Amino acid sequence: xxxxxxxxxxxxxxxxxxxxxxxxxxxxxxxxxxxxxxxxxxxxxxxxxxxxxxxxxxxxxxxxxxxxxxxxxxxxxxxxx
Length: 81
Fold this sequence. Notes:
alpha+beta; Ubiquitin-like (UB roll)
């Protein structure tokens, strides 16, 4: 299945782009997606950065199953003041 991944802030800067299209097996979860991203893009450090995942505009837990054409967003923590 094809998943579209939108990248924001520091995640976008790390990869130099704002969108990825990935192929995942049927039944893949958010955790599977994170594992694939970790193996393809080690510079992201997703496990330590507090990056949240949203699927179709809703925050998602690691065990959420993904579906063909889902839109996933990787949302890093932001700071400011």
